[in-house]
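Re: that chain you flagged

S.,

Sorry for the slow reply, it's been a week of failed gels. I finally had a moment to sit down with the sequence you sent. For the record, here it is as I used it:
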Amino acid sequence: MNGIHTAVTIGKFECLHRGHQRLVANILGQQENGLKGTVLAIETKGPRMLTESEKKGFLSRAGVQECRSIPMDEKLRTMEPEDFVRHVLVDELHAGYVTAGTDFCFGHDRRGDGELLEKLGRQYGFSVELVEKEKEDGRVISSSWIREELEKGHISAVNRLLGYRYYIAAPVVRGNRIGHKMNLPTINLLPSQDKLLPPNGVYISTTLVEGRFYGGITDIGCKPTIPEQEKQLGVETHLFDFDGDIYGKRVCVTLWEYLRPEKKFADIACLKQQISEDILRGKQYFSQSS
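Prediction finished late last night. Pasting the structure tokens below so you have them in one place:
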């Protein structure tokens, strides 16, 4: 076998929750043994909790040396389990170590399982470590469970199951400057179309800007009080104690708590009053948390 041997974990890794992070920790541990930590992410279509760029950024910050993505297409779906191991894990990745969940299935009709993986590992010379599922209150933590909580707007539950706070990473775009006119300036993000967002509403948030975190409040929605914006879904954040021009820069908005649903106000004055109240609640939240 040629090339650097790798420590590989395989899965959809839709949101890199606490269970996924155990697998990542396993391959990071193997890097100390000279293996190249590699995540093989199987990409599916549709809205996702982590976009591909967010996922790669997350894994890079964790210390993973390589993240590869392969589409869940017809070729992958119909590949025999033995062929998947031989062609992907052995020939392409030069796996010396593979870790996965105890319920991991692979290959055509999901005929490959942990037992077969261990058998093929002995045949091709890589070790296998299967990991029990992470649980919360006796229930297995899964991407589908987290997705359910996110779609209900239960941000606290989402963050607890993830093991980190849900975030949106995107460049700052120019808005309609309504916030500036109200003396409540905001930054606007246009998230990737495949990013799964929680229900429209206002959230307590922090935003990472050029290496520094700022508390704030974030509105996710269509700005119903502003008619020309009614159809455009976006993410708008007011940052506490920030004054700067960051158009075009990529920032990361992290959601902490849900405050209230999005609402159409009678006029801009009523909107300003509500935003001022939201800001006060946000500042009180952080002062009590510190």
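What I noticed first: Residues 32 and 63 are 12 Å apart (CA to CA).

Talk soon,
D.
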